[in-house]
Amino acid sequence: MFIDFFYELRDEGVPVGTQEWLLLLGALEKGLHGSSLQRFYNLARCVLIKSETYFDAFDRAFLKVFQGVEGSLKIEDELLEWLKDPKNFRPLTDDERALLEKLSSDELMRKFLETLAEQTERHDGGGRWIGTGGRSPFGHGGEHPTGIRVGGPAKNRSAMKVAEERRFEDYRTDGTLDVRQTRVALRRLRQLTRTGAKSELDLDETIDETCKNAGEIELVWRAERRNDIRLLLLMDVGGTMDPYFDPVSKLLTALHAERGLRQFEAYYFHNCVYEELGRNARLLRREAVPTGDLLRKLDPSWKVMIVGDAAMHPAELLEPNGNIDPRRQSGTRGIDWLHRIRDHFERVVWLNPEPREDWNRYQTVRLVERIFPMFHLSVDGISDAVTALIGARVTH
Amino acid sequence: MAKKTEAAPKSDAFFQFSGTKGYIASSSLVDAVNCAIALERPLLIKGEPGTGKTLLAQHVAEGLGLQIEKWHIKSTTKAQDGLYVYDTVQRLNDARFGEGDVANIRSYIRMGPVGRAFQAEERRVLLIDEVDKADLEFPNDLLRELDEMRFTVSETSDEIVAKHRPVIIITSNNEKELPDAFLRRCVFHFIEFPDKALMTQIVGVHHPHLKTQLLDQVLIKFYWLREQSELRKKPSTSELIDWIAVLQRAGMSADDIEMHIPFLGALLKNEKDTEALEKYHDRGGRYPSEWKELGPKYNN
Fold first, then answer.
1. Is residue B18 part of a domain?
2. A89–chain B nearest CA distance, Å
3. Which chain B residues in 126-165 lie under 8 Å from chain A, judged by CB atoms?
């Protein structure tokens, strides 16, 4: 049962490795759980989970594994005492530890735990309890937390309650956007270089130069390391984008607050990029910027983020004069403009506020997805998009 | 076998932290602290700004009767700075002007907070505050030192070995992701935003003579504000404490704040948030004055 918990966590997508698991076993050996399920819950969480974004997944796994047995088992007092005894947990031998440290795959881990289970069974003579826990290969450890549960029924409920409340659901990062979390995701958008005014004392060079100068102090200055990222944001506004005003404005807030960027420019369009881009969301004609000028002005090292749902009538993307604003029609197709953007800049990503499941519903989304790597407009999606913008180049 | 039913085995090395008079800690936080101490792992504390992460280290030190070494991280801090600093400029200057003991390199080596904690004759608490402020690689640069509890001063080849493993507390404001290798070695705790009951206790520590009705009104307004999703920056505990201080100075009573939120500036630090709330009030929006107007979260 105990090892089930481990795999349940992994199934929930929590990155738990052998190292954390061993640490938890070590903590149980020391008796830190103090025969209470509440404290076991606290202990397991602080040792196994390293980010509050996984607390919700942890709660769900905890519920799944430890809730089923609640109240369905009756254990004699003697057994209860045995379960309470933390010393029963056999410490690992040095050999086993060494072996375990070499392991990386789950399969080997399972084997080791099986051995451990066998030995415990021999040692304690098996019995009903072992039988119950036998579902898991890790007999002993498996019973242990369950034993705690039986040992402290009152507290047990409270730990379940904590898990049941799922208070940490808000901290998940695969759902909606939060300005702060978005800023964290964007913080990785950086490439440090030494350019600009020389304002930092270069000690090593100073010493070298001073030595060469026969001890007369010679100060050498160099430019500070700073972010060299320049970001161009192109944003779809109006129409089908209206329902996504909230996440999009939060992304904008986060980007505007991101002072680390060397340069940041934002332009707007409706449905698809054509000849002109708007300087603001009202898309006024007299304030428009020709897309071609922008491509000439910005060099290819600018990172480009396009935000839009890419959902439109196929003609808007694929036909000449596709712009739904009749005053702005022109011979170049929308898809050609998208290709020009892709060909001009080294890195472009597309952020789509629609849930990923819906992308397939529109032909145009599928087409755009073939031109640009597309990510969901969530914290996780932005984080992946940032990786695509600055990380190793991936072909798509 | 049955005789050992006591909770935790006590030994000299096993300190127990249970909060202090000036610091209210939740049970899960206390468990996390004790777990980190027993397992000899650094404790990583995350949480919203203003939930008392830095204060925790101070109070752990106080609770355990240990001295504390504080290392406040800035964006320019390097891992090396925590171990020791070799004051080249001073030495250069001394050499130039013939002052000081220039021949002895050791007199220009100054220990940083980590170095001091390692060299101390008795166990210390080591606080590494706001680790996320530094460069992304910063935590990785400290891995070996914190794992093995030793480092070498490369200028003199002296090896500094920790006489006593310090209790390491690391705080993060969550501004940057921390590297996985670093996280794996830590015990992690996330300070949740305090609920009504815990907040009442916390306020009690800072403002012991606050009237119950006033406190109730204050907390209703405070939690209501936090529920407003348009706010760019939610008010935190420290802002609540400040706000109450202002209210008390101004001699406000529960009636005064039943329908109003005076001194909004103490709670909201973003201009746009203040504007949004004023607009809401001008349009005739009202503030709640009873708990049942807040969500089910506050009424069980």
1. no
2. 12
3. 136
Q: Which A positions 91-110 lie with beta carbon below 8 A of chain B? A: none
- The pLDDT value recorded for residue A252 is 77
pLDDT tens figures, A2-53 = 777 888 888 888 888 888 888 888 888 887 776 677 778 888 899 999 888 8
Q: What residue spans define the domains of chain A?
A: 2-169, 195-225, 228-390
Tell which of B17, B28, B94 to mutate to test the A interface (max A CBs under 10 Å).
Answer: B28
Q: Could you give the number of structural domains in chain B?
A: 2
A46 in contact with B at a CB cutoff of 8 Å? yes
More confident site: A325 or A77: A325
ipTM score assigned to the predicted complex? 0.77
A311: contact with B, CB 8 A cutoff: no
Task: Work out the average pLDDT over A121-133.
Answer: 34
* B29: closest chain A residue by CA: A42
Q: Could you tell me the CATH number of the domain that includes residue B32?
A: 3.40.50.300
Q: Mutating which of B188, B229, B231 best tests the A interface, going by the most A Cβ atoms within 10 A? A: B188
Distance, first Cα to last Cα, chain B: 42
Could you tell me which residue, A282 or A7, shows the higher pLDDT? Answer: A7
- CA B75 to chain A, closest CA, distance in angstroms equals 12
* The domain boundary residue, chosen from B141, B157, B191: B191
Angstrom distance (rounded) from CA B4 to CA A89: 13
Confidence band, pLDDT 50/70/90 cuts, at residue A65:
confident
Whether A229 shows a pLDDT value over 60: the answer reads yes
Residue of chain B whose Cα is closest to the Cα of A260: B75
Given a cut of 80, is residue B142 above it in pLDDT?
yes
pTM assigned to the model: 0.62
B162 and B85: one domain? yes
B249: containing domain = 196-298
Nearest CA of chain B to the CA of A289: how many Å? 29
Whether B53 has its CB under 8 Å from any CB of chain A: the answer is no
Tell me the residue ranges of DSSP E strands in chain B: 43-47, 67-72, 84-86, 109-111, 124-129, 150-153, 158-161, 167-172, 187-191
| Region of B174 on the Ramachandran plot (φ > 0 left; ψ -120 to 50 alpha; else beta) | left
Residue B20 in domain: no
- Residue B13 domain-assigned (yes or no): no
User: What DSSP line would sit under B135-200, residue for residue?
Assistant: -TTHHHHTHHHHHHTEEEETTTTEEEE-SS--EEEEEE-SSSPPPHHHHHTSEEEEEPPP-HHHHH
- The domain boundary, picked from B157, B191, B225, lies at B191
Beta bridge partners of A234: A267, A306
pLDDT in tens, B43-91: 999 988 778 888 889 989 988 889 999 999 987 788 888 999 888 778 8
Q: What is the CA A231 to chain-centroid distance, rounded?
A: 22
Written out in words, the top-level CATH class of the domain with range A228-390 is alpha beta
